[in-house]
Automatic annotation (TrEMBL):
GO terms for cellular component: membrane. This is FxsA cytoplasmic membrane protein. PANTHER family: UPF0716 PROTEIN FXSA. Residues 159-176 have a biased composition (Low complexity). The chain crosses the membrane at residues 32-49. Pfam families: FxsA. The keyword Transmembrane applies. Residues 183-192 have a biased composition (Acidic residues). InterPro entries: FxsA. The lineage of its organism: Archaea, Methanobacteriati, Methanobacteriota, Stenosarchaea group, Halobacteria. Keywords: Membrane, Transmembrane, Transmembrane helix. Residues 141-192 are annotated as: Disordered. It comes from Halomicrobium mukohataei (strain ATCC 700874 / DSM 12286 / JCM 9738 / NCIMB 13541) (Haloarcula mukohataei).
Length: 192
């Protein structure tokens, strides 16, 4: 969390330094030209965000009309909101970040990286693995590596294997599942 705050504080600092350097060091650029350049980049950026926002909204409506979930489009919408905020913040660094988030060519790889390293791990943590399919599949959750208790379930004799969940039995099946005691249930009606 501290890294995020540090980056958020570093960007305006870089912007201020770059604006001061651009206004003082370059003889061809006066302070008025630098301010005008910042205002023009913000206006052009906001027009770009507006156009991309309309395009993204149209794609969301098309996906919803076909019954699909518009996950990529919603992430794009969030990036466009961030791009608009970056364009409204005066400075060249924030305008560059806004441009990276507003252009579809650069937004697609950013979206894939965000889904891989931010969105999916966050949702997996909230949904306990159901988003990516990394669900717990052996024994009972919270049982640990100790396996069933020596007295077995409900104090009776131990009938299951002694391996903990997550380890495989000799036949490759997860421990805690006994093929000999498995019952196949057929829910279809039979005409006899």
């Amino acid at each position: 969390m501290l890294r995020v705050i540090a980056v958020l504080l570093l960007i305006p600092l870089l912007d201020a330094l770059l604006l001061v350097v651009a206004a003082t060091q370059f003889d061809t650029l006066s302070a008025a030209v630098v301010v005008l350049l910042v205002v023009v980049t913000a206006l052009v950026g906001m027009l770009l965000v507006r156009a991309e926002g309309r395009h993204t909204l149209r794609r969301i409506q098309e996906k919803l009309a076909t019954g699909e979930v518009p996950t990529d489009e919603l992430v794009d919408g969030g990036f466009l909101v961030a791009a608009g905020a970056f364009f409204l913040t005066p400075g060249f660094v924030t305008d560059l970040l806004g441009l990276l988030l507003a252009l579809p060519i650069t937004r697609a790889p950013i979206r894939m990286a965000a889904k891989r390293w931010i969105i999916t791990p966050y949702l997996d943590a909230k949904a306990q693995g159901f988003v990516s399919g990394n669900v717990y599949v052996g024994g009972f959750p919270g049982q640990g590596d100790a396996g069933p208790s020596p007295s077995g379930p409900a104090g009776g004799p131990d009938t299951g294997p002694s391996d903990g969940p997550g380890t495989a039995g000799s036949d490759g099946s997860p421990s805690g599942f006994d093929h000999d005691n498995a019952t196949d249930i057929d829910f279809e009606e039979r005409d006899e």
